[in-house]
Amino acid sequence: MQSVAYICRMQQLVESIKSLYTKWKGVPPVSADLLPQSGSERRYFRLHGTEGTVIGTYGANIKENEAFIYFTDHFKTSDLAIPEIYLVSEDKQFYLQEDFGNVSLLNHLESKGFTDEVYELFKKSLEALARLQVKGDAGLNYNNCLTNKEFGKQAIMADLLYFKYYFLDALRKPYDKQKLIDDFEALSNYLTHTEYKYFMFRDFQSRNIMVTEDNEVHFIDYQGGMKGAPQYDVASMLWQARANLPDKWKYDLLEDYIDAFENEVGQSVNRNIFQSQYNGYVLIRLLQVLGAYGFRGLFERKAQFLTSIPLALRNLKEFFHNQSLGISVPEFSRVLDLCVADEIIQQFTPTQATDKTPLVIKVHSFSFRKQLPSDNSGNGGGFVFDCRGILNPGRIEHMKTQTGRDKDVKDFLEQQTKMPEFLNSVFDIVDITVEEYIKRDFESLMISFGCTGGQHRSVYAADAMARHLRNKFKVKIELLHIEQEAKNWHNPLPEKR
């Protein structure tokens, strides 16, 4: 029932966004593609017309839509690096916006590495950010913000307490709670009394910066913006964990940004004060990320977040031991020293294989209609997990001939079923064995996922397991999709009788 409801809902959204396009252009689009869902509940469609493409957006949160639309209309008067909105539906749930393509600044970094070309794109993004912050602030009515009008003391305290509750307290280490709260108060007061307050993007990172074919940069997802210190956005970008920028890049790009900011405000700034407050916001971002990893990993038991904790702690250690906050917070400093201790980092660092590790893990997908995968190692087999309790995408017409590697199937399993919860539990079970096998120099392990036909759910789960084990343990993997390999990945519909 859930799968049918999902398909019907997607069809309704497609028809609504097509109707809005037709109202705008006078003719319907040639086609409409559902784009991958981001972290929010919004859905995006790429609409193809005879004159090019546009992005159709659906959002059930009207206030969020209104914030984005208002900011965009306001920023357009200053010719800033944001999309044009072509048409908004009467109920404000749908709107059409300019299409900047599929390539983000993060995509450029991941594909090309730390090259001069990528550095120039980061520099150009920071220059555009300074323009957005200063020019976008002029005449902006902050009553239209989605949440708070200003990133002030309350918001900073919320991020610090998020870290305290979901990471620090999970360590079960002693500290003076009242002194720590007092230090939180002192740091929050210090950071909110910054000399400069302009438009704050709030989620300024390389995945929200699109790069077009002419190497121009454009911003998306700024609907959470508010008034605040400009340093916060810079800290968000330069210390984004996934980007992992070199120290020299962080230093040079900060200087580039300050140059651009001075040009926009028309005056020089005290760089020592500006940087000490920047350091404070870097710390806030690093701790907020740790809080998020703690919540998702330690409390929700999502394996991918647990594996990110060591990197986040190393980032925090590097920053804390090399930068000055410009304010004395003794208990806070003691707590941070505790968090970045080698024993804590080691606690969250999984045992990993080396080139000399003999362990090879075979991961299979198979059909329960056939026999279980055989183990030729002589050890009698390994884990077998039954995926048939997960809603079957193969019962949906347009996915019948697809596999667990096709986008529609993956989106369905990730967004409309309990496959993520199922796999997180499986990861927890398997990880215990894999870690022990690495330590004890075992040579083989077999992990098999079965579903009805060995085509959708089991394929997706086996791929996810292989990816998880490679990322977490760096172990050798042999991946085999038994049914799909036997059919050469060809899945025609059965003939009608």
Could you list some keywords that capture this structure?
497 residues, alpha/beta, Phosphorylase Kinase, domain 1, Aminoglycoside 3'-phosphotransferase, Chain: A, domain 2, 3 domains, five-stranded antiparallel sheet, four-stranded parallel sheet, 17 helices, 13 strands, 49% helix
Would you list the SSEs in sequence order as H and E? Answer: HEEEHEEHHHHEEEEHHHHHHHEEHHEHEH
Strand content: 5-15%
What value does the average pLDDT take? Answer: 91
Give the % helix.
40-55%
Main sheet makeup: 5 strands, antiparallel
Low-confidence stretches: none
CA-CA gap between termini: 26 Å
CATH superfamily of the largest domain: Aminoglycoside phosphotransferase (APH), C-terminal lobe
Report the count of strand segments: 13
Q: In terms of structural class, how would the helical and strand content be classed?
A: alpha/beta
Whole-number radius of gyration?
Answer: 25 Å
Q: Count of helices?
A: 17
**Name of the CATH class of the largest domain:** Alpha Beta
**Which strand order do you get reading across the main beta sheet?**
1-2-3-5-4
Protein described:
- Strand 1 (31-34) and strand 2 (43-49) form a beta hairpin.
- 49% of the residues lie in helices and 13% in strands.
- The chain is an alpha/beta fold.
- It has three domains: 2-98, Phosphorylase Kinase, domain 1 (2-Layer Sandwich), CATH 3.30.200; 105-348, Aminoglycoside 3'-phosphotransferase, Chain: A, domain 2 (Alpha-Beta Complex), CATH 3.90.1200; 360-486, no CATH class.
- Helix 6 crosses helix 12 (330-339) and helix 15 (419-439) packs across helix 16.
- The chain has helices at 2-25, 62-76, 105-112, 116-137, 153-168, 177-192, 230-238, 247-265, 271-299, 303-306, 309-322, 330-339, 342-348, 407-416, 419-439, 457-473, 482-486, and strands spanning 31-34, 43-49, 52-58, 85-88, 94-98, 198-200, 209-211, 217-219, 226-228, 360-367, 383-386, 444-451, 476-481.
- The strands form four sheets. Strands 1-2-3-5-4 form a five-stranded antiparallel β-sheet, sandwiched between helices. Strands 11-12-10-13 form a four-stranded parallel β-sheet.
- The model has no long low-confidence stretch (mean pLDDT 91).
- The radius of gyration is 25 Å and the shape is globular.
- The chain contains 17 helices and 13 strands.
